[in-house]
Specification:
Blueprint (H helix, E strand, L loop, with lengths): L5 H50 L2 E11 L5 E12 L5 E13 L2 E9 L3 E5 L6 E12 L3 E13 L2 E13 L9 E18 L3 E14 L7 H10 L3 E11 L2 E11 L5 E10 L1 H10 L8 H11 L1 E2 L5 E10 L2 E4 L2 E5 L7
Antiparallel strand pairs: 1-2, 2-3, 3-4, 3-5, 4-6, 5-6, 6-7, 7-8, 8-9, 9-10, 10-11, 11-12, 12-13, 13-15, 14-15, 15-16, 16-17
Helix pairs in contact: 3-4
Length: 342
């Protein structure tokens, strides 16, 4: 058995020390380079994403970005953010500040926050919508991206809600046909209050939800032109479930919405209504139903109503909108307000 010489032993120790020193220097240097590359790729990705959206007819702008967070986070901050669609805008969302953070080794999951809130408006809604705080979790997948949003302290005209939750799913590629969805969404609202009560439902919407899919791609252009092209290509809005609890009224709907040749809504759905008298009274208050027809409509709906598991009577029937008129089963409720496209 040979015994290493002192010189050989010293060389081995020296090489080991040098290897440790090189590793201690190289690993942080390599990680620093990786972090810098990730930051560069992120900034380039934002630019590419914005260019792609602009080509689809969106207006995307911001000031920045500012990047920091080394070594254990990658943080990006954008100021004066605007996202809008069309000219004039079908919708526009503005936020004074938007920040996003992810782990450098997991750039598929992001936490986003707009600490100063956000403000938005849509061309055919009467009032802008404002939220005091927005938070979201973003998951970027190879085929589908998901964003789970919570908006707090929301106001829209006479409506105020403490929070709205929304889950959005967006395919990475534009839909190839009306059989593919361009957006899947789930919305949940609870305890929304109105400045003035709506007779006979009251001034508090206890809960409302919507789950559905926007089928087909919406091409660039002004709203009437873009929506007409979407309609002509077979585009529809598939409502998987919509629900409303407002005072005595409980309502659930599922079915399909589309646009007719005059660009007015048409619908073929199935609905379940608890307390249809409250629905008819609200339709009278909104001017949809003449008061002299109310008793007849209530009588026919009474004949359709059956007791549910909770003992409350409910109507389950087709709900249709056609030629500008709303009907439940074969009972015509009244006209639907026409959309005046600008």
């Amino acid at each position: 058995m040979s015994i290493p010489s002192p010189a050989r032993h010293r060389r081995r120790v020296l090489f080991s020390v040098l290897a440790v020193v090189i590793a201690l220097v190289a690993i942080p240097a390599l990680y620093s380079a990786y972090w810098a590359y990730s930051a560069w790729r992120l900034e380039a990705g934002f630019t590419a994403w914005a260019d792609a959206r602009r080509a689809e007819g969106y207006r995307v702008q911001w000031r920045g970005p500012d990047l920091w967070g080394f070594p254990f986070a990658l943080h990006i901050e954008l100021a004066d953010v605007t996202l809008a669609r069309g000219t004039p805008a079908i919708f526009e969302i503005d936020a004074p500040l938007l920040s996003a953070e992810a782990k450098p080794w997991d750039l598929a999951h992001w936490h986003l926050v707009a600490p100063g809130g956000a403000r938005g408006h849509a061309q055919y809604l009467p009032d802008p919508i404002a939220a005091a705080l927005l938070q979201a979790e973003l998951e970027i997948g190879p085929v589908l991206s998901k964003i789970d949003v919570v908006a707090q302290d929301i106001g829209a005209g006479a409506l105020h809600a403490g929070a709205i939750d929304a889950l959005l799913e967006l395919p990475r590629k534009q839909p190839a046909s009306h059989r593919d969805f361009g957006l899947a969404a789930q919305f949940r609202l609870s305890h929304a209050s109105l400045a003035k009560p709506v007779r006979p439902l009251g001034d508090t919407i206890e809960a409302a939800s919507l789950q559905g899919k926007f089928m087909g791609a919406l091409p660039p252009g002004d709203p009437p032109t873009a929506l007409a092209a979407w309609r002509d290509s077979g585009g529809t809005l598939e409502i998987q479930r919509a629900s409303l609890q407002w005072g005595a009224l409980a309502l659930e709907l599922s079915g399909t919405l589309a646009l007719d040749k005059d660009m007015q809504p048409i619908a073929a759905m199935t609905g379940t209504i608890v307390d249809h008298d409250a629905l008819v009274d609200a339709a009278i208050a909104a001017g949809m139903v003449p008061a002299k027809r109310a008793n007849l409509i209530k009588l026919v709906l009474d004949l359709l109503a059956k007791p549910g598991p909770d003992g409350r009577r409910r109507v389950t029937a087709p709900v249709t909108v056609e030629d500008g008129k709303l009907a439940i089963g074969k009972v015509e409720i009244g006209p639907v307000p026409r959309i005046q496209w600008k």
